[in-house]
Predict the 3D structure of the following.
Amino acid sequence: MSTMTIDERRAQALAEMPPYREPGVFSRGSRWVRSHIIQFCAAGALLFMFIPVFVVVLFSFNLPTGKYNYVWNQFSTSAWVNVWSDTEITNSLTISIEVALISTIVATVLGTLIAFAIGRHNFRGRGGTNLLIFMPMATPEVVMGSSLLTLFVLAQQEGSLGRITITIAHIMFSISFVVVTVKARIAGLDSRLEQAAMDLYADEKTTFAKVTFPLVLPGIVAAAMLAFSLSFDDFVITNFTSGQTVTFPMYIWGAAGRGIPPEANVVGAIMFGLALVVVLVPEIIRGVRKSRA
Amino acid sequence: MSEQTATTAAESSSTGGGADLHIIDVTKRFASFKAVDDLTLTIPAGSFFALLGPSGCGKTTTLRMVAGLEEPSEGRIIIGSEDVTHLKPYKRPVNTVFQSYALFPHLDIFENVAFGLRRSKRKDVRNEVEAMLELVELSTYARRKPTQLSGGQQQRVAVARALINKPEVLLLDEPLGALDLKLRRQMQIELKRIQTDVGITFVHVTHDQEEAMTMADTIAVMNAGGVEQMGAPMELYENPVTTFVANFLGQSNLIKGELTGKSGGDALIQVQGQRMAMPTSRVHSERDEVWVGVRPEKMQISRAGTPTDGENAVTGVVTDASYIGVSTQYLVNLPWGQEVGVFAQNLSTEGPLSAGDSVVLHWNPAHTFALDATQDAEAGAEKVEGDE
């Protein structure tokens, strides 16, 4: 043994090894499936979520034969061309956007202030405030809508039901979502960053302006986007508080009975496109910046 | 680091030089807990000063009070000739390198470093920041975000961000705690070099005794809100005055003994019937009952019977010998049942002693120290290495 060279010893060890076996096609295939099963599930789930959107976009290019836009007939861009000529659509859309913008601004400002108060300060009634903030999210919309209507009627505002009452209602339920979103961001903020700013000659105001606010801002933007979309597509509460006013979701609901025109699909497709842009553009900008750095 | 950048830093700091920092009778209470208890320290201008102690000893609280992030319950803090005890952090001539750095994640490296200059409305921010980034060798990273940098690079940004403001005192809160060992060694040398270059007073908080000894001119060993002993690293190690210091800095063998008298400059001690001597300057006890202390590497180990004239000596039996290359670590059982540690260089040609060998341990009387026997012999012995 000791007289063998290293090469001889290696040859002997190789000869004593069990033979190498090629894995079969079947076992290789099943291994591939097993290791990719999560991807399959994810693709399936995404498909499930996006098929309705796809159908909406597809049927915006349809030329329906009757009043119902359910059966594919023929490709046409007429709905896209004529979308702003239907006054019912444009009026309701204007109201919805107006209400959504105002309620988003008010709810974001108030909600952010509440989030800072709850997240940063210990005061009497903090627990109670937290609970109150949570209530609108936990209450069924039907209950909230009907009680809001009762409130407005009790306040003898029955005659003025309309944009203002809708906006008030939307602000009310949006605030909770803003507070929760912004509060989470504030809770994740490292207090040492503010201490570091103070240590580097920034007084309280400058620290807030240069460190705290910029770091919380993504949370505030996310909250505003959430508030806008909640307001824009709310139906139940709006229906109770709108009086004679018709918002876009209410128009769709009404139109469903007598046949939704393809123009409604166009508005839906545009809204989806806008949402995509809002989400994707910052991502793309970030990507470009990173590749440049 | 090139010589050129070092000169730039030295020039740019010509206005600095630091100021004395006085902490006078400072106490800090949190609810019922006293984090810092009647602490008085003077840290001379331009020194590299370390506050060393286990977690919870009050060293970080002390630092935060100097920075203005905590307010003392009692006492005063004076920087140079200015009383800053109740000043807001942004009004103090002090900057901090935070533990885990606290870099602003939404700003790039350049803006992180420029933050202090922009607040004090300094002109020529650009050149100053560029010079500082060059000093810490991060010029090419100016437009990166902190999260795109490694731990060591982030650490250097944190130092640059504090140092660029030329504070009177730079505070470092466990600045190397998050780095791995190799990088830590490298940054220790780097920090020491920067301090020598800029000449600002550095106050460095750490629980790592080796880190403190490597970098600091003066170390204050803290325990339970107060200073146990303050001095140069060598002084603390060679001549500790409490059992806490003796055990927290390195290791010590502490043997029960009794002071019996004096002869010239020497104190005489009786240890288990054995007479020993030591310089009186190394006796730190008011009472006769003492712990007689010797560092393990100061003890020499020889086979029983070896003459030990003029030295302090005890006999024993080896219970364990671990050969670790540069030295051999022995555990030796003394006749009265106590076990002591000995580090011996591997000078002998006949190989190390082994378990069961009868030996005599002997050491120079000048390496002996005596501590008050009412103190806990185990105080400070627990290693706090890696405890963040």
About this structure: The interface with chain B takes residues 190, 192-193, 195-203, 206, 210-211, 214-215, 293 of chain A (CB under 8 Å). Chain A is about 75% helix and 0% strand. The mean pLDDT of chain A is 89.
